[in-house]
Amino acid sequence: MSHVLSEQALEEPIPAVASGPQAKPASMRPVVVLVVVFLATALWGALAQRQAAHSGTLPLPASPAAVYAGLILMEWGMVLYLWKAALRGSTTELRDLIGGRWKGVRDVAIDIAIGLLTWGAWTLLSRMWVSWSGPDAAASVDSLLPHRLHEIALWIVLSLSAGFAEELVFRGYLQRQFHALTGSASIALLLQAALFGVSHGYQGMFACARICVFGLLFGLLALGRRSLRPGMVAHAWTDIASGLLL
Fold it and tell me: What is the number of structural domains in the chain?
């Protein structure tokens, strides 16, 4: 668990799609742990969808705020696992996985602008997808959305947490690890996107497929920018908008 990639692989920035293979991980355990966790989440989601099929919507939680608080803890638990377990003993830090450096206000503004443009592209693509595929037969997740003021506040915190943590785990860590294992940045891109999609199984099959495309888009953004920062902005705003604006 204490070693993930060889120093050569870990010290590389997020590679371009056309770059050559990296050294293989010294330990597969952190990768396996994360994959198992996300597949278990997918299974739980599929079961939740099956149980809610008769009602057409997922059950309303007794306390949405408590659900949001629990999910916030889970998101930061993933970050803690990367920091204290997956990267322990290596020369790589979390900031190395994030990539890029903000040297001034201009750099911040550029990444925010790219993030918002990516969100706009994703929103357009998502609407085209829904128009093409027709109504989703999956149980609705509307029961999980916020309504009260304190729920909205927690939803925003959850969205910001997910934008940071999930981009760090999927595009920052797993995409690099899959690249090191397969020797192909393209295969790594597909694998992390597929895992990202199925981990949202509670939203239904069509939503999972759509979120796989989301993962591809954000993975390409990470490769192109050699930084997770624009993707974190776009991811967080996508989640905020899905609960408050759409």
Answer: 1
The domain containing residue 164 runs over which residues? 25-52+60-89+104-244
Supply 230's token pair. 């624009």
In a domain, 159, yes or no: yes
All residues at 6 or more sequence positions from 227 whose CB lies less than 8 Å from its CB, including other chains:
14, 98, 99, 100, 111
Q: What is the pTM of this model?
A: 0.85
Q: Is residue 11 part of a domain?
A: no
* pLDDT, tens digit, 9 for 90 and up, residues 167-203: 999 999 999 999 999 999 999 999 999 999 999 878 8
**3-class state of residue 61 by DSSP:** coil
Supply 241's token pair. 């908008």
Residue 120 lies in a domain: yes
- Which residue matches tokens 């760090």? 168
Asked whether the beta carbons of 86 and 27 are under 8 A apart, the reply is no
Residue 216 carries which side chain, given as an amino acid letter? L
